[in-house]
Here is the input.
Amino acid sequence: MANDEQQQTQPDPTQRPPATPVGSFDFNRPTIVGLLYLGSLLTGVSGIVGLVLAYVWKNEPHEPWEATHYTYLIRTFWFGLAGALLGVLTMIVLIGFPILLAVCIWMLVRSVMSLMKAQQRAPLSDPLTLLV
Here is the structure.
């Protein structure tokens, strides 16, 4: 009988960690990077901090679902920067304004998608995609 009680009290290592309770916000690492990216749409600087954190945390031990988020968020930064540079360079012919608007919307959507999956502690299905 004592052996049965001991087996019941030990946690099952194959169980997923519990999901975030309804009504609370989980500040896990991918969430922090995503929030910094969203802040960069207003400040322009916090995205660099998010990129550095994503690179650092990618090389540290982390939960398996986080790996896809780091790849996704790092690619979001670099492609967003390339799009922003293209937009700035083409502002002289007035095509740069719609390009910059499209890049801002693209970064906003990708950051929010990563935030939603990070709150569920779920991996992204295709972190190498350029779409959503």
The CA atoms of residues 71 and 127 lie 6 Å apart. The two ends are 53 Å apart (CA to CA). The mean pLDDT is 87.
